[in-house]
Design brief:
Blueprint: E1 15-19, H1 24-35, E2 39-44, H2 47-59, E3 64-68, H3 74-87, E4 93-96, H4 111-139, E5 142-147, H5 160-180, E6 185-192, H6 201-204, H7 207-216, H8 225-236, E7 247-250
Helix pairs in contact: 1-8, 3-4, 4-5
The structure holds nicotinamide-adenine-dinucleotide.
Nicotinamide-adenine-dinucleotide binds at residues 19-20, 22-26, 44-46, 49, 69-72, 97-100, 120, 124, 147, 149, 192, 194-195, 197-200.
Length: 273
Amino acid sequence: MTGQHDDWLGLKGRICVVTGAGGGIGAATAATLAAAGASVALLDKNAETCAAATGALVDKGATAVAIPCDTSDPASVAAACERLTAALGPCDVLVNNAGFLSPGALASLPLEAWNANIAVNLTGYFICAQIFGRAMLERRRGAMVHIASIAASQPQPWSGAYSVTKAGVAMLSRQLAVEWGPSGVRSNVVSPGLIRTPLSEAFYQHEETARRRAELVPVGRVGLPQDIADAVTWLASDRAAYVNGEEVIVDGGVTQTLMGLIPRPGFTSSETR
Ligand SMILES: NC(=O)c1ccc[n+]([C@@H]2O[C@H](COP(=O)([O-])OP(=O)(O)OC[C@H]3O[C@@H](n4cnc5c(N)ncnc54)[C@H](O)[C@@H]3O)[C@@H](O)[C@H]2O)c1
C-alpha cells in the first residue's frame, strides 16, 4: 500500500460482507478488501464456489469465512448475519453484489422470471441492507456499496427485467444514503460496464463477438473483475468518507459513446486523432 502509513484506506480490521462472492466480481472484491487488511465474510448460495474462494484467501493469510446464503431469503440472511457476528463481529461494510442475468423480451417474459429477477437482484439487496445494516446503525458507522450496472440507466432489448432491478438498486442506494447518512452509514453504487466473468462468459466464447465488444469500449478492452473491485474498495474505505448517494460508473467509457454513433457528413472519427 502506498501512502504515509500502511492503512491508507482505513480498512485494516474492518469486517466486510461480500454477497455473491463465490466468483466473478464478488470474489475479486473480497480478495481486494482482504488485501487491504479487512476481515471478510464471503456469502454465496453456491456453497462449493464460496468455500473455494474463501480457501484461496485463507491460504494467503487473510481472515476470511465462507457463509453459504441465499440473499433473497430473509431467514437465510438473518442466519448468515448471526454466523458473521459469532465468527468475526458486527458488520462494518456490506457489498451487495449477488445477482444473475436471465434475458427475456418483455412481451413474453413469464411472471415467474420477472419475480425471480426482482427477488434476487433488488429485494435481496434490500434484505441484506436491512439485516447487515442494523449493526451499522447501532454503532453509527458503516459503508454499503451496491453493484448495479450500466443497465440501470441504459435500456437494452432482452434485458427488461434485469435493467429494471438495477435501476431499483440505484434508487435503493440513494434512499439509504439520505435515511441512514445522518446515522453514520454511507451508501453508494458501482455500475459496471462490460466485465468478463462467469455471468457474461457466454458472450466471449465467440471470438468475433468478443472482439467487437472490446472495440466498442473507448479504453479498448473489456473490463476485469479487478476493475470493479478497486472502485468498490475505494467507496467502502475511509478515503470516500464524504461520498454518499453516488453512482460510480466503471465501464471504460462505453456509455459515453452514443453521440459518436450519429452519422454526420464530413466528420469521421479518425479526424479526432
Ligand atoms: N459481468 C458483467 O458484465 C456485469 C455487468 C454489470 C453488472 N454486473 C453485476 O455484477 C454482479 C456480479 O456479477 P458477476 O458478473 O460477477 O456474476 P457471477 O455470476 O460471476 O457471480 C455472481 C455470484 O452471485 C451468486 N448468487 C446468485 N444469486 C444468489 C443468491 N440468491 N444468493 C447468494 N448468492 C447468489 C452466484 O452463485 C455467483 O457466485 C451482479 O449483480 C451483476 O448483475 C455484472
